[in-house]
Each structure stands twice: as structure tokens, then as C-alpha cells.
From TrEMBL:
<dbReference type="InterPro" id="IPR036291">
    <property type="entry name" value="NAD(P)-bd_dom_sf"/>
</dbReference>
<protein>
    <submittedName>
        <fullName>NAD(P)-dependent dehydrogenase, short-chain alcohol dehydrogenase family</fullName>
    </submittedName>
</protein>
<dbReference type="Pfam" id="PF00106">
    <property type="entry name" value="adh_short"/>
</dbReference>
<dbReference type="InterPro" id="IPR002347">
    <property type="entry name" value="SDR_fam"/>
</dbReference>
Length: 301
């Protein structure tokens, strides 16, 4: 899965899936522009400690070239500056991964929309959707400048059915991103490029680990029975790297594919060597009405 000589831009690469994707693109040999708001000198409103410089260093350590560029994707001038930087350096983007989120502080899970805070609700939508549109509007010209470009939208979930207590704003953002992936599949095919969307399973990101009060060393101790099927952000990263290296990737145009679906397609593993299959677990365990704590997770990893 060599991506040597390829130029990638990953938005929202400070932490989580964005970081995992950037590192795995680097491990495959790509030059990766690591973009986000938090640097060692400036912290975003999310208040997180992770920085784009750390991610870029991980990209380079993995074998690629990591280039940190501070960018708030809600600020058009920031995105213009990013575009101009990549244009001056390379003249093109081979792989664009649109992973901006920034909605964690605004989501009110389990709260009826009519009882929720409207400002927070709009914050979810603005940070989760407007940023994607701005990034695409400004960066797509560098992708479509030559055939073969790949654009991947990162969402949560591979179907549009309303999953319940996540709330309307969150559902709007994540289903909206899947819709963008479908539209890109059609629009980019006309210029010889490919657009699509991907989703992780139950993610073992920095924030999720903190939410469950565990670390990467003891995550199996989380008081959440389904967390035995969790995956690191690098798992989705390996899925994206496999897509980027696939000469027939256009067959997936417009689709939303999950980490576990792509694992079955390409055969990659998570960093611990396992192959968590959240889709099969959900179908068998939850679809079958089983108690997750009584099921042997090893059979699904």
C-alpha cells in the first residue's frame, strides 16, 4: 500500500480519527498536511491538549512527511491560506480527507430537541457541516486539477436511520456528511476523481477513553460492555490508506463504508493485530437481543 509521492490533506487531524488517518497515510509514505486549530501555542475552544504538531511528528515517525498547518475551517481566510500553501508546495492534492468535527461541547445527547439549547444545537451544525462545505469549496480545485484524486468524508454510522438519543443536530450533521459523500461520488466521477464517505465503529479515541475513565492500556475495563469491540483511530486510518492505494477505488464512489467493511475487503488489522467487526457484533448481539457482557468478544475481533 505505497503512497510514496502522494500529497494528502487531512482536516481535523489534531486527534481522534483525523490523527489516526494522518498517521496511517504517512506510514504508507504520503506527505500529509496535518490541519486543525490547536497548536503548542494556541488551544481551540475544545480545550484539548492534543496538537497538530504532535500529529505531524507521528506522521513523520511512521515514515511519511508530516506538515502541520493551523487552520480553522470555519474561517474562509484560514482555508484560503492552507490552499495557497499546498498549491505553492505541490500544486495539487491527491487525497483529501474531510474530518472536521468540533461539536463535542455542543451535543446534548438524550435531550429532546425542543428542550435543548438552540445556540448549542446550531453550534453542532455549524462546526460539523459548514466547515466541511468551506473546506470542499476551497480545496476541491486542487483535487480535480488532474484525474485520480480521492476525497473522503468522515462520518459516524453507515446508514441514515435515526439512531435515537443522539439528537436531531448530531444526526443532521452525520447524515449530512454521508449525503455529501454521495454527491461527491457523482460530481467527482465526471472529472475522473472519486468521492465517498467512511465511518469508524465504536471508537477508542482520546476523548472516548476519558469518557469511560480508562486508558489505551486498560480499555477492556470500561464499564460499557460494548467497548470490548472498540477500535483505535488507526484502524480507520488503515482503511483510508488502503482506499487511497487502491487503483480501483472508484468502484466505491458515493458509498459510505465502515472500518469493518473495509477490513473484510482489504484484510488489514488494528494496531493490536485484531480485526474488530463492529458490524457483525451489532447484527448478532444487538440484533439478536443478547447481553453483550455474556458474548465472547474474541470471536468478533
Amino acid at each position: 500500500m505505497s503512497l510514496a509521492g502522494k500529497v494528502a490533506v487531512v482536516t481535523g487531524a489534531t486527534r481522534g480519527c483525523g490523527r489516526g488517518i494522518a498517521v496511517e497515510l504517512g506510514a504508507a509514505g504520503a506527505t500529509v498536511y496535518v490541519t486543525g486549530r490547536t497548536t503548542r501555542q494556541h488551544q481551540s475552544p475544545m480545550g484539548r491538549k492534543e496538537t497538530i504538531e504532535e500529529t505531524a511528528e507521528l506522521v513523520s515517525a511512521a515514515g511519511g512527511v508530516g506538515i502541520p498547518v493551523q487552520c480553522d475551517f470555519y474561517v474562509v481566510s484560514d482555508v484560503d491560506a492552507l490552499r495557497d500553501r499546498v498549491l505553492a508546495d505541490h500544486g495539487r492534492i491527491d487525497v483529501l480527507v474531510d474530518d472536521v468535527w468540533g461539536g463535542d461541547k455542543f451535543v446534548e445527547f438524550g435531550t429532546p430537541f425542543w428542550e435543548s439549547d438552540l445556540e448549542k444545537a446550531l453550534g453542532v451544525v455549524h462546526n460539523g457541516l459548514d466547515t466541511h462545505l468551506i473546506a470542499l469549496h476551497r480545496l476541491l480545485p486542487l483535487v480535480v486539477s488532474q484525474p485520480g484524486g480521492l476525497v473522503i468524508e468522515v462520518t459516524d454510522g453507515d446508514v441514515d436511520d435515526y439512531p435515537g438519543p443522539v439528537g436531531i443536530p448530531y444526526h443532521l450533521v452525520k447524515s449530512g456528511i454521508r449525503s455529501i459523500g454521495r454527491a461527491l461520488g457523482a460530481d467527482l466521477a465526471a472529472v475522473g476523481c472519486t468521492g465517498m464517505a467512511v465511518t469508524p465503529g465504536f471508537l477508542r479515541s482520546e476523548m472516548m477513553l476519558e469518557h469511560f475513565g480508562v486508558t489505551e492500556k486498560n480499555w477492556r475495563e470500561a464499564k460499557e460492555p460494548d467497548y470490548v469491540m472498540s477500535e483505535t483511530p488507526r484502524y480507520l486510518g488503515r482503511a483510508v490508506a488502503a482506499l487511497a492505494a487502491d487503483p480501483q477505488v472508484s468502484r466505491f464512489a458515493g458509498k459510505t463504508l465502515a472500518s469493518w467493511t473495509l477490513m473484510r475487503e482489504y484484510g488489514f488489522t488494528d494496531i493490536d493485530g485484531s480485526q474488530p467487526d463492529w458490524g457483525r457484533w451489532s447484527e448478532d448481539v444487538h440484533g439478536g437481543g443478547l447481553d453483550p457482557s455474556t458474548v465472547d468478544a474474541a470471536a468478533y475481533r
